[in-house]
Amino acid sequence: MNKVAVFGNAGGGKSTLSKRLAEITGLPMVALDLLKYQPGGDEVPHEEYKAAHDRLLQQNQWIIDGYGSWDTVWERLEVADTLVYVDMPVLQHYWWVTKRFLKGFFVPPENWPKNSPLLRGTLTSYRTVWLCNQKLTPKYREYVNKARENRRVYHLQSPKQVKQFYQMVERELAK
Predict the structure, then answer these.
(1) Alpha helices in the chain (DSSP H)
(2) What gap in Å lies between CA 149 and CA 160, rounded to an integer?
(3) What is the tens place of the pLDDT at every residue in 9-47?
(4) Do residues 4 and 62 make contact, with C-beta atoms less than 8 angstroms apart?
(5) Which of 51, 79, 118, 119 is the one with CA 20 to 30 A from 171?
(6) Dist CA 132 CA 125 (whole Å)
(7) How far, in Å, CA of 145 to CA of 55, rounded?
(8) Are 40 and 116 in contact (CB under 8 A)?
(9) Domains and CATH numbers, the chain
């Protein structure tokens, strides 16, 4: 476990999982939203994001949290030796986006660019949850089923499975 891609729908707990996994393993964690968006929430030019993403993939160790863009997600999944697919029920994603919005009035959302507009980001997340569930989730599920042949794949579908995943990683590292 040296190159870990954490991916899935919006509001599924990817950032929380990535942060905890980095604490457990000592691997460096990178949140793609911080590469893809400037402070204030505007996107960086795609070429700039892509170059930073490509440099990141060349490193020997990482945990990469997030989606990024259509062209980079598949590159990242191919390079990763470990895939962690966070695939909660869609209503769970909506609830967690709502919870993040409400908490955001008091504490900025984790791994969001500084000064990102909370309402705009939340509305985008709601739309993303729906679109991802309709279009990308089936592709992700198909991909992880095939990837099991040659990589470590963790398809996490409940908060309980996330806790079990942490425990499993801690046990493996203790050996």
Answers:
(1) 14-25, 32-36, 46-58, 70-79, 90-103, 118-131, 137-147, 159-174
(2) 25
(3) 988 899 999 999 999 999 999 999 888 888 777 889 999
(4) yes
(5) 79
(6) 10
(7) 28
(8) yes
(9) 3-174 (3.40.50.300)
